[in-house]
């Protein structure tokens, strides 16, 4: 009976996680800030937004590179649903399955 309960619990958590965020964040290191909802991701940070996702970007400078990638610099903010990502520099590019935002460091907040 215990094994069956654990399986059901894990399945429910995975479904909520996938449907709530629909994106993937990877980094070399993740730290949670004390007394805050923010997590700080550092080192090779990559965020994969799903295809056709409606996310907003703001930055002081936006350049389109010859490769088609967009380079954002200065007070960069990415917003997707209730997720807010803040960084100083980011490169936005097309990827298999969606759009990737790559950066060295990011502060991520959201529910």
What attributes does this structure have?
single chain; 111 residues; alpha+beta; eight-stranded antiparallel β-sheet; 1 helix; 18% helix; globular; disordered N terminus
The number of helical segments is: 1
β-strand number: 8
- In N-to-C order, the SSE pattern is HEEEEEEEE
- Termini, distance in Å? 33 Å
Strand coverage percent: over 45%
Characterize the quaternary organization of these chains.
single chain
Instruction: Name the helicity range.
Output: 10-25%
Cα-atom radius of gyration: 16 Å
Let me know the largest β-sheet. 8 strands, antiparallel
Provide the domain count. Answer: 1
The low-pLDDT segments are: 1-21
* Overall mean confidence score, pLDDT: 80
- The 3D shape can be described as globular
**Structure class:** alpha+beta
Write the layout of secondary structure elements.
Elements: H1 2-21, E1 24-26, E2 29-32, E3 39-50, E4 56-58, E5 61-64, E6 70-80, E7 83-95, E8 98-109
Antiparallel strand pairs: 1-3, 2-3, 3-8, 4-6, 5-6, 6-7, 7-8
């Amino acid at each position: 009976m215990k094994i069956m309960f654990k399986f059901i619990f894990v399945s429910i958590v995975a479904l909520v996680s996938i449907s709530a965020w629909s994106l993937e964040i990877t980094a070399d290191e993740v730290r949670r800030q004390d007394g805050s909802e923010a997590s700080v991701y550092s080192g090779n940070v990559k965020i994969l937004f799903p295809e056709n996702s409606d996310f907003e970007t703001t930055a002081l400078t936006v350049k389109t590179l010859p490769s088609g990638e967009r380079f954002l610099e200065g007070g960069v903010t990415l917003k997707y649903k209730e997720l807010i990502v803040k960084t100083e520099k980011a490169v936005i590019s097309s990827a298999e399955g969606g759009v990737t935002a790559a950066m060295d460091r990011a502060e991520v907040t959201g529910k």
